[in-house]
Structure formats: structure tokens, C-alpha cells
Design a protein that fits this description.
By secondary structure, the chain is mainly α. The protein is built from seven helices and no strands.
């Protein structure tokens, strides 16, 4: 932060690619939460690969974190998605595992740094998307598992989550470099 000789920070130290108000942060969380639910409900691609929706979900959640001032922006977006999903007739528990737990994992991974580096974003996105498998693992029925090959859905969930995080990270890095 640049010092101006007073106890207040100078205006030049505020990044121009992030909202400057709490209401801007709330709007980002609500908008990304809505985008999460709409993407989850409307995008139907027959990829037949477990975890592919994590590409979209982790990109949106990392975007919330990169663009917002809030430390728990991912969780804020996920709570919005959870409420909207329940309001649209979705199963409440599926929303918790689809949105809330991955968002909490992302926020906890990013807690040590306000703006994570690319490797932290990739690993956090992969781990967060892999947590979407928890209800299937607890129930003993994991999609995509044949002959006990549990490594396949875990790997694909991790890779899609990491790729989604990398996409969001790259987009925000490119936007930031264009503004300079």
C-alpha cells in the first residue's frame, strides 16, 4: 500500500479489477451462485466422463474468489446456489455436496493467500471437485466405476476441477495484464 503521510491508504493502491464495495462483492457471489445452478441444470453434454461438470463449477467458484474482496466468496456463491437449487426443486443434500462442500474446500485452501498462485488454484480446484464424490463413496455406488476401479472417477474429478481452476486463473490473469 502506498503511503500518503496519513493513516488512510491512497486510492492508487486499490486494484481496479475487483469491486470496491461490499455490495459489489455480494452481487458477485449472488451472480456466480445463479450461474452455478443454471450451468448445472441447463448444460447437458453426453461426455460420459465422471466429474466433467467440475470444469464449469470450479471455474466459476475460482472466479468468485479472484474477483471478490471477500475471503469466503466461494462459500457465498455456493450458499446462493444451494438456496436457488432448493427453490427450483433440487434435492437439498445433492446441492450441499455439489456446491457447498467444494466451495468450503476452495475457501480454506485460499485462506492463507488473498490471491493464490496458479499451482495452489489447480490443486485446490482438483481437491474441491473430488469432494463431490463423497456421497457416492459413502453410498458405495460411484458413477463410472467398473470392476472396482475407483481411481478413474477420482482422477477425472480431480483433473476436471484443476482444469476449471486453471481456466479461471488464466482468464483473470489475462484481464489484469490487459488493464495495465
Amino acid at each position: 500500500m502506498a503511503s500518503t503521510g496519513s493513516s488512510y491508504p491512497s486510492k492508487s493502491s486499490v486494484s481496479s479489477d475487483r469491486p470496491h464495495t461490499r455490495w459489489g462483492t455480494v452481487a458477485i457471489c449472488i451472480g456466480i451462485g445463479i450461474a452455478l445452478v443454471l450451468a448445472d441444470r441447463w448444460i447437458r453434454a453426453p461426455l460420459h466422463v465422471p466429474g466433467w461438470r467440475g470444469l464449469i463449477a470450479m471455474a466459476l467458484l475460482v472466479a468468485a474468489r479472484r474477483w471478490s474482496l471477500a475471503q469466503f466468496a466461494c462459500t457465498g456463491a455456493a450458499v446462493t446456489a444451494l438456496a436457488l437449487n432448493a427453490g427450483m426443486g433440487g434435492a437439498p443434500l445433492s446441492g450441499v455436496f455439489s456446491y457447498l462442500i467444494p466451495a468450503i474446500v476452495l475457501d480454506l485452501c485460499f485462506l492463507t493467500r488473498s490471491q493464490p498462485n496458479v499451482w495452489l488454484a489447480a490443486i485446490a480446484g482438483g481437491l474441491a471437485n473430488a469432494t463431490r464424490l463423497l456421497p457416492a463413496l459413502a453410498g458405495g455406488r460411484v458413477p463410472g466405476v467398473t470392476d472396482g476401479a475407483l481411481w478413474y472417477p477420482i482422477t477425472t474429478h480431480f483433473l476436471f476441477g484443476a482444469c476449471g481452476s486453471l481456466i479461471a486463473f488464466a482468464v483473470f490473469t489475462a484481464l489484469r495484464s490487459r488493464q495495465r
